[in-house]
Write the structure tokens for this entry.
Amino acid sequence: MRTGAAVAGSSVFFAVAPGVVAGVGPWALTRWEGADPPWPLPVRVAGGVLLAACAVVLVQAFARFVREGRGTPAPVGPTERLVVGGLYRYVRNPMYVAVVGAIVGQALLLGRPVLLVYAALAGAGMWAFVRGYEEPNLTARYGEEYRAYRRAVPGWVPRLRPWTPDAA
């Protein structure tokens, strides 16, 4: 896939997938209005920091699909190569982890427990999608390369040290 097409496709998918799940969903549930009375300031600050960190993770992960994978995270524009660099050396699903984290960040920032429930439901849906669709397709597409990666890198809780493919 050409770089321009990968950038365009990834940008559209960014708006459609995480934009809807971590943006439109929380807005629909809360109109981004904080609790009254607000939660303690340290909790709100932690939520803001978490939200910002997760946004950075999402942008980096999407960019890696373009640069390293020469494709998009969208099933309709898959990568030419398996993406295993950057944050993917620590956890196989940094995008999903970041989306759930962004929702939790909003819950803390706004003081809205309904977003914690939404984060749990969204996370469960993502887990089911990964297990039922992504993992079988990645195994079929990349074979032993993906199986080795899957054995070495956890899906949802990051490793403390980065995985190095040569060390596998």
Summary: The longest helix spans residues 114-142. The CA atoms of residues 75 and 86 lie 21 Å apart. The chain has one domain: 3-167.
